[in-house]
Amino acid sequence: MPDDRLIQEIRRALARMDSALGEIREGLVLVNEAGEIEWSNTSFDALIGRSRLAIIGLNLYTIIPLNIVGNPMLTMEQVRGGIAKKGRIISILRRNPVHALEVEWWPVTSEEPNPLLFVFRDISDRITLEELQQGITHTEQNWVEINEFLPDHRPPTIRRKSWLKPWRKSWETATKITTLPWIVLASGLLMTAGISEQARRIVVQEHLRIENTLLDDVVDAIQAKLEIDIAILGSLTGLLNASNQVSRDKFNTFYESVILHTREPQGVQGIGFARWIPATELTTFESRIRTERFPDFSVHPPGPRQSYSAIELLEPFDGRNQRAFGYDMYSEPIRREAMQRAAESGRAALSGKVRLIQETEQDLQQGALLYLPVYGDKELPTQANKRRLVGWTYTELRLKDLAKTALDTVDNADLNGSAVLIFDGNQPLASNLLFGNQNLLRRNQIRHPSYERLNFAGRTWLVGVQLSPLLLGPNGINASLWFNLLLGSGGSVIAALITRILVSNHLATQKALEISEKAGRERALAMTVFEESGQAIVVSNPEGRIVQANSSFSQLTGYRISEIKGQRTNLLKSGRHDADFYKAMWDAVLQRGFWEGDVWNRLRSGEVRRHHLSITTVRDENLQPRYYLGMLQDVTERHQAEEAVRYMAQHDTLTGLANRGMLLEQLERQLALAKRHGHGVALLYLDLNGFKPVNDRFGHNVGDQVLQIVAQRFLKVIRDGDLLCRQGGDEFVVLVPEAGNTDELVSMGWKLVEVSRQPYSTLDPAIAISASVGIARYPDHGNTCEQLLTAADNAMYAAKRAKGNAVQLSTGHQHMAQPDSGLLEPLDDHRHQHQ
Length: 835
Known about the structure:
Structural class: alpha+beta
Strand content: 15-25%
Helix content: 40-55%
Number of strands: 24
Distance between the termini: 64 Å
Number of helices: 22
Strand order of the largest sheet: 2-1-5-4-3
Shape: flat
């Protein structure tokens, strides 16, 4: 008998075979002492049409009523004690159609009460429906009484208990002592989470306070810088109002005395004056400026407009600013909007985002302009509706430099490493970005800034600030929070582990008893399945000697168990496998512990059958092989069916020759070999002349016989290594691997022509058939399958047109004649007349 470890391995192997291959055809059911189903295999699930999860825990009567045909209803109590410990009955499964089941049962253990193993076999094909109905008529119960055992006819109390059963089991599980460590762990983690969440919220509030304070400081600094720039424009406007004409030298002196001797305005590209010019005065203005040492001066961009503006005075008047000299800012829409707003309101106006004329690709920055209007009628108040506009004083702002200058004045340590963004307008859109130093955060964009609007000179800027990641995070997560979480979680886990140890010690003795009882049941169940299963099972030792086999193995092979014990497992060798096959099989078993595949075995009767074999290694405590467990299933009929399908897929059903698919497969393979070894490959394309009249005169049956005779004649001509294929209709192709020279191929072609011309006296002496042969050879006439087939086909058509020369060698450049060309009209045959 196999030992306990072997029995457990048998049970696991059977379960794997059952789930993976479905090879155990009998329906197996394990029923406890209460009649409830504890386990079933896939064959039983398929038999009753219900899933395993749906039947576990149900009473066997609710699924299959156990009744003996011709005898009273058999109850579970009768199965246990009233009849026999082992028995066989006929049961009725009321499905559509009605099924007859042969039922056998065995007790798993010898103790009372004990679980039972039921085996169900469908014998509907061995008993007629009339016999079933006659047997049912003689029973003391009818179908109505039998249906009382089905789920739909159970009493309401039973259904209610079944509905409450999952909830009851969940409650019992939750109240078990084994859940105590989880309760301790969950409680500790919940307390840790609550404390950590409270600390996180405090950090979030502090983050917002610091960020808003920094934002206020940044906005104030930017506003202060812009106000300084407006004050400078106000001074320049006062200078222009005080003098009717300000010379360039005087403007330069003002710039140096007021600006350079105080503080150089960072972020300002230049300060200047742009004159308002009606279209009628443009020529006069340009002429005046040209007389001031600027002979090439002109207002730009050129073009007719109703009115112009031109930068007349600009400091510092260096090479970069000279590019803007004479520029008409009023011609550009964004600048024009700010200039109009300043002229209409009499106050400073800030433009939108522009690119300054002075900018180059080096250190390119976004720009903006501040305008202040200059009027010629000084006595009128600023708010007068009609004033004579002379021009604008303006300052050109480079926003990156301006923002950095403003941020340098912020006295807040939290600014270090924090990100600042400035947008034109009310929305933080990428297209409106004026300034951004988010690279301080080492990322392309900031994710959670605080924003504040800055309204200045008739325009709105949106200023955003995000604190440095080294400061408090916006979500409140910092090192302190992680430390608290780690400390609390670690303490909870330690407390749970201590509780777990205490509980484990408490349950150790009880668990040992349960394991012992369960092991006894599993051994009994495995042994019962091993002995009674329909799966052929054989056990051998590491020396290859048979230790045990079940009755199914004896039925499969014809050997009695008594005569195979101690014999070597190679007694089934059929001789169809070489030594390499068995070596690879046992190498897999020794290395991976498992092998599975099909083998040919010779039965006791001498018949050779194909078996699906799986071998599993059973190891001892030292992980050394102790037994080898083999399972066999006869798959001979399935293999024969597969081979038949495979043969039909590659051969012509009429002649038995290879078809086009097999030809292309072999041609591809032979071309690969030819390219590797440097030899030739040839195709002989044959078409039968005079075949269509045979079909028309004698019928397709005779035509089929002609094709069969021609195929046999061709087979006698070609070499053993050549492949003859029927393309379809009356066309054949010969594949010649390792082809010789063209003379040998032409000689073979004439032999094929000669045998095709031989009489067909067994059919009718009037039948006259001949063949036209086209020859193509690799590498002379093509390098691919398509090229060789086309070349041979074209050569065959050349042979049909040659009138006397029935064998033609491809020239490598022939073209197939088109049906409407008239070249094939004299021929007495057409392609594909008989498939």
